[in-house]
Specification:
305 residues; alpha/beta
Amino acid sequence: MPQKTRTAFVTGASRGIGKVVALWLARSGFDVAITARSVAPGEEREHSPSVRRSDTSPLPGSLQETAAEIEAMGRRVLMLPADITDPASVGAAAATVLERWGPVDVLVNCARHTGAGHMDKVLDTPVSAIRTVMEGNFFTPVLLTKLFAPGMVARGSGIIINFTSMSAFSDPVKPAGDGGWGITYGATKAAVHRLAGIIALELQESGVQCFNVDPGYTWTERIEQDMAKFGFVADGAPPEVSGSVVAWLVTHPEAAAFNGRTIFAQAFCAEYDLLPNWDASHLRPIRARMDRSPVDLEDGKSVSL
């Protein structure tokens, strides 16, 4: 009997880390359901990270482009437009996957909402903006976990990966707008950061595993277009670092040893030599620092977007 093809659901897959993760999963033999707001190239929508200005300029990347690359690898793809700040659209996307493919093997909560408040100081950030970002960055991963985990439990296997950030447990070295980040980013990442350990504990007898992946400072299309004007410079790791780590976690039997833990993608990628052509000489060995302080983990840097 032929082995069933494994399936994955990836949020934020139109560009950046989410897109690269989806492509790495496809290369690893997964059929991939992808979701994001941007369906076609050149779409205009508000994406300013500050209340002080509006920005509707098109961002690079779209679901159509990601889907085309996955299909070129010979994998199935489901393109499911959804807005992580809209629970109804997220629920509809999940329902479509469950109806067409059944329970997924892997859920990757990669999308993040970086709207107003992301680059604003606390006193300048409307409470409504904080609620919106919390909806996208925390409640959506919780919702998707609740929708997909029961099928994993029933099958006796499954992997949930949440993208976290060092902003969840460390302070910026500069204020928001001057190279640091605002309360919406740090607070919502802190919330989702707690999910992996608790899910891993509660489902430890079920065969379901849950990990946090901290990509570290990563240079993506959106960082280049949106964040350079707020003091961020192009010295981050490529998104392929995170893609390689996710692929390892969902295919390697040793991954079970990290269940419930936070994987610091750049150091992990370097130690396990997942991207031989990537120069990671500035990183220290991971094994000596898995349980050290957040600042130590990034060689004294607390920037992590």
